[in-house]
Amino acid sequence: MPGTHGDQQTRRTQLSDLSNGYRASATIFSAIELGVFKALSNESKSADDLAADLDCSPRGLRILLDALTGLDLLLLDDVRYSLHGLADEFLCLGKHGYMGDILEHNVAMMKKWVHMAEVVRTDKPIQREKVRSPQELRSFILGMQNIAAGSAQQMVEFLDLTNIGRILDLAGGPGTYLHTLLHHLPAARGTVLDFPNVIDIALEQTEKEGLTDRVDFIRGDMFEVEYGGPWDLVIISNIIHSFDDSANRYLFSKAASSLDIGGFLLVKDFFLNENRTSPSDASLFSLNMLVATDSGRSYSWQECELWLAELGLKLIRRGRVGISSGMILAQKSE
To answer: How would DSSP label each residue in 242-261?
Structure first.
């Protein structure tokens, strides 16, 4: 029997909420792009003062500020706006857990997502600059730090840290995972491998962590340079979604060859279940890779575990990190 009118109206509302989700995200991204949250990080301001600071129209900015207030991200006291709720916790400059960098990266991604239909039709990502600008690169790399800060401790808990003395963080970006592990392993050393301009940022973060005497760096393309070793642990975190199967198989082979006997390969990514449709965050992230890369996508647990088995690595365990990410740990036995 067809549902009641009330049931149908509920389903209409659900579909409407799904299709209008862009409104809230576009509101937040516009505020990020204009610098609203940064400008309010240290003090409250009126719409007119903020408009002058950000070179915006007072009318347009006031409407945006009121919408942000409606989303509980700002607080309006008489005529002055201040950070509130999630924005005060995660978008206030200088606070632990700051997420502004990853949201700046998401602003750039949103501009790609509007071309989704064309990308699906042609299976070609939209035209993009071959090289990120220094600011785009910095936002992306520090955005990776924003994300890693929330899962690095889970990585520590997932691993057995016994007998881990030498660690390679492959395409390690800011080095967040390596830094966290080294804080738990006072006798260990580690190396971050990444492109030269990324290593410049990793050096800054390593200095901030007080680990400059325990971290080395390899500057170069992970598909071309030698990895050194032998390593007790190689970390491949949030990398495989950017490449196709053959590239990932080659990457895993290089990593496995650099491991010491008994060493571990840790893979973290947005893993899908076998049917490739869930969890939804991971399947949506696959679309993100469709619009942003030539051949990337989200992979299933089974696909990744097959690549490891083909190299003779023994699966030790797998586990979820939050809703959409996961980790797989494999060991080299001979």
So the answer is: GS-HHHHHHHHHHHHHHEEE
